[in-house]
Design a protein that fits this description.
Layout (H helix, E strand, L loop, with lengths): L2 H22 L1 H7 L7 H13 L3 H14 L5 H15 L3 H14 L6 H13 L10 H16 L4 H30 L3 H14 L6 H14 L3 H14 L4 H10 L28
Helix pairs in contact: 3-4, 3-5, 4-5, 5-6, 5-7, 6-7, 7-8, 7-9, 8-9, 9-10, 10-11, 11-12, 11-13, 12-13
C-alpha cells in the first residue's frame, strides 16, 4: 500500500480515537476545567459522587459551586444541607452548625428545618465531655432536643431526641454525683446535700438516684440526724430493695429498733444498658 495512504488512514484512526476519548471525558472536563460553568445536573451529580467515594473535600467544593453558581435553583438548599451533613459526619461539628445556621438564614421556610435543628443538636451532643469536665455542650444539646420535641412532635427526630435526652440526663446526673462525692470527701455536707437533691428532683429516673439516696443516708447519719438517715433508707428500700445501695444503707441504719420493710419494688431501674459511647473521650 502507498505509504501516503497508510499515513492518511492512520491519521483518520487517531482522529476517531480522539473524538471518542473526548466524548467520554466531556463531563469530567466540564467539571474540572477552570472558568467553565458545568450544567447543574452534572455538577450536583459529581459532587454527590465524590461524597459517596469518600472524597469529602472535593465534594464540599463542588457543592459550594452549586450553592454559588446556581443559587436560585432548587438544588442550592440541598447542596447546603449536604455540606452541613458532610461536616457533621467528618466530626467537624462547628462547621456543621455553621452551615445549619446558614440554611436557616437563607431558607427560613425550608422543608428540612426539623432535620437541620436535629443536626445542630447532634453536633453538640457529639462534643459532650466526661462527667469530670464542663457540661455546657450537654445542656445546650438537651435544650435543642427539647425544642425539637416541641416543634416537631410527630417526626422521627422527636423520637430520637427523647432518647438522646435520657442519655444526657444520665450524664448531667453523673456530673452532680461527681461534685457531691467531692464535697463529701471534704466534709462539706451542705453543698453535697444540695447536689444530691438536684439528682433526686431533676434526674429521678437515672441510674444515679439509688446512689444519691444512699449518700444522703451516709451524710445524715454522720451528722447525727438518724431520723433523716432512716427516712432516706426507707425510701431506698421501698423503691429499690434489690439494689446494692439499699443493702449498704441498711447496714448503716438497720438496728433492732428499726427495720426497713422489704416490699416489692414499684419502680425498677431502666432495663436497657445505657451506652455512653460518646461521653468518654
Amino acid at each position: 500500500m502507498n505509504p501516503l495512504v497508510q499515513i492518511k488512514n492512520l491519521y483518520k484512526l487517531l482522529l476517531i480515537i480522539f473524538v471518542i476519548f473526548l466524548g467520554c471525558n466531556k463531563e469530567d472536563d466540564l467539571i474540572s476545567k477552570p472558568g467553565t460553568l458545568p450544567p447543574l445536573n452534572l455538577l450536583y451529580k459529581e459532587a454527590f459522587k465524590k461524597y459517596q467515594t469518600g472524597e469529602w473535600t472535593n465534594s464540599i467544593e463542588l457543592f459550594q459551586k452549586v450553592e454559588s453558581r446556581y443559587s436560585y435553583s432548587e438544588w442550592a438548599p440541598k447542596a447546603t444541607l449536604m455540606i452541613m451533613y458532610i461536616y457533621y459526619e467528618a466530626g467537624q461539628g462547628y462547621r456543621a452548625v455553621e452551615y445549619a445556621n446558614k440554611y436557616k438564614k437563607l431558607y427560613p421556610f425550608g422543608k428540612s428545618m426539623d432535620y437541620v435543628d436535629f443536626i445542630i443538636g447532634l453536633s453538640f451532643y457529639e462534643k459532650i465531655e466526661t462527667v469530670a469536665r464542663d457540661q455546657s455542650n450537654s445542656k445546650f444539646a438537651k435544650k435543642k432536643f427539647k425544642e425539637i420535641i416541641k416543634k416537631y412532635p410527630d417526626t422521627i427526630y422527636a423520637e430520637e431526641a427523647k432518647y438522646k435526652i435520657d442519655l444526657i440526663d444520665e450524664q448531667l446526673a453523673g456530673k452532680e454525683m461527681y461534685i457531691a462525692r467531692y464535697y463529701m470527701k471534704k466534709s462539706k455536707w451542705i453543698p453535697a446535700i444540695k447536689r444530691l437533691n438536684i439528682i433526686m428532683n431533676d434526674y429521678g429516673q437515672t441510674i444515679y438516684v439509688t446512689e444519691a439516696l444512699h449518700r444522703l443516708v451516709e451524710i445524715y447519719y454522720s451528722l447525727g440526724n438518724i431520723n433523716a438517715a432512716k427516712k432516706y433508707a426507707a425510701i431506698l428500700g421501698y423503691n429499690f430493695n434489690d439494689s446494692d445501695w439499699y443493702k449498704k444503707s441498711y447496714k448503716i441504719v438497720g438496728d433492732k429498733d428499726y427495720n426497713i420493710k422489704k416490699v416489692k419494688s414499684k419502680r425498677k431501674l431502666k432495663d436497657r444498658i445505657i451506652q455512653m459511647f460518646k461521653f468518654s473521650k
